[in-house]
Design a protein that fits this description.
By secondary structure, the protein is an alpha/beta fold. It contains 17 helices and 24 strands. Pfam families: Lactamase_B, Rhodanese.
């Protein structure tokens, strides 16, 4: 038996490859299918089934393209309905893969079609449980993403409690839990950075197994931040047949001359997205460009701040990273990338085009400016939980997640100094707001650097 976790840090997402005796399955694949085809080839295996634990909200999965490329059967859990060919699995149904068995365990709660898959080895011993978003390491899936008029988040939380305690709790302690996500995903509130663990350890350490049902429901529905706006769009895409991945990448990697790029950039319905490093963007970028760098959680932040999933996008990328940008955009359903600036910002400058520099200050300069009054409008753009844990006393909090709402209150006659935890998210915020004509200054190193400065009269609330 071969079992491999294919973990994508940008999405904090785990897909799984399992093979035995020349047959293989994939669980929760990403949209680009070539890595799975390569893995199957490396292990002399034919992909027989593609399993989805549920209709994912935070990324577009690749079951349709993978089935088309391999002839594999797509397996969806009970209650799932989709527009493509699939096998609707029954609770308790067994699928054979070589000498292995996969048992369907229906676990509604995160969504009503959510399903776990129990792996038994060649000897029939229970080895692993692929839990999707039902059970994370240290957490469980949020119960609000599938809430409807006839099914509240409290209803879903109640179903999830029953699934955990009636379907998962009785399983053997030595089973390995393999979830669909880890820390950094918006599909849970406080999941661990671990990407697997024994079920026995989760029974001992995960709060979800310790609470009574009423307390469990209260815990799950309290303190939920609004899900990113692209989540419902991704769910819908995962239920239908979409433009194939290769077509999207071919279009997104179209090289655009300076003149062609400029012509597109001048169109109101086209967004210029600069995906280079923090320092490269700050040094010089195009007027009106938004920064979302590949070095951070690129795809989730695209989904959080680019509100229209059908947005036309043209890209500024580091040389050799153009296909990676198009791939990461497509993972979250942004399929309308029209190409990239050939030759990059250097080509733009060589033709005498205007560039803009982002003003930056060090953390110490920021603190000194607050102390002497030369900096009057500081903004903290971290998440609500981060801000609640520790922040500069009296500072204005405007989370990046809500940039399009909270930036409406900013005054174009003022200069704002903005920070996050490390300088990445604050530059995203600054670039978006600056495109609206507001003066923004980024604090290098963010709150992490601020805490290491000589604070003087400035106090932190913790």
């Amino acid at each position: 038996m071969i079992l491999e976790q294919m973990y994508t840090k940008c999405l904090a997402q785990g897909a799984y490859f399992i093979s035995s005796q020349g047959e293989a399955i994939i669980i929760d694949p990403l949209r680009e299918v070539q890595p799975y085809l390569d893995l199957a080839k490396d292990h002399d295996s034919t992909i027989k089934y593609v399993f989805l634990t549920h209709f994912h909200a935070d990324f577009v999965s690749g079951q349709v393209d993978l089935a088309k490329a391999t002839g594999a059967t797509v397996i969806l859990g009970p209650n799932a309905k989709a527009a493509y060919d699939y096998h609707g699995a029954r609770d308790g149904e067994i699928f054979e893969v070589g000498a292995l068995q996969i048992e369907v365990i229906h676990t509604p709660g995160h969504t009503m079609e959510s399903t776990c898959y129990l792996l038994r080895d060649e000897e029939g011993k229970e080895q692993a449980l692929f839990t999707g978003d039902t059970l994370f390491i240290g957490d469980v899936g949020r119960p609000d993403l599938a809430a409807k008029s006839d099914l509240t988040k409290e209803d879903l939380a109640g179903h999830l409690y029953d699934s955990l305690h009636n379907r998962i709790m009785p399983l053997s302690d030595d089973i390995i839990v393999y979830p669909a996500h880890g820390a950094g995903s918006a599909c849970g509130k406080n999941m661990s950075s671990q990407t697997s663990d024994t079920l026995g350890n989760q029974k001992e350490t995960n709060y979800a197994f310790k609470l009574h049902k009423e307390d469990f429901i209260k815990e799950l529905v309290t303190g939920l931040s609004a899900p990113p706006s692209y989540f419902p769009e991704n769910v819908a895409m995962n239920k239908r047949v979409n433009t194939d991945f290769d077509t999207i990448i071919e279009r997104g990697t179209t090289p655009l001359s300076v003149s062609a790029f400029e012509a597109l950039a001048l169109q109101e319905d086209v967004l210029v997205l600069d995906t280079r490093s923090v320092s490269a963007f700050a040094k010089a970028s195009l007027p009106g460009a938004w920064f979302i760098g590949l070095s951070g959680q690129f795809a989730p932040w695209v989904g959080a701040v680019v509100k229209d999933i059908n947005q036309k996008i043209i890209v500024i990328a580091e040389q050799g990273k153009e296909e990676e940008v198009a791939t990461r955009l497509s993972r979250v359903g942004y399929d309308h990338s029209l190409g990239y600036l050939k030759g990059g910002v250097e080509a733009w400058i060589s033709e005498g085009k205007e560039v803009v520099e982002t003003q930056e200050v060090t953390a110490q300069e920021f603190i000194d400016g607050l102390s002497n009054g030369s900096i009057a409008y500081p903004i903290d753009v971290r998440k609500d939980g981060e801000f609640a844990t520790s922040h500069i006393d009296g500072i204005t909090h405007m989370s990046l997640d809500e940039v399009h709402t909270n930036s409406k209150d900013l005054d174009p006659s003022r200069t704002y100094h903005v920070h996050c935890a490390g300088g990445y998210r604050s530059l995203i915020y600054a670039s978006i707001v600056r495109s609206q004509g507001i003066n923004m200054v980024n604090v290098l190193g963010g709150y992490g650097a601020i805490k290491k400065t000589e604070l003087g009269t400035i106090k932190l609330t913790e």
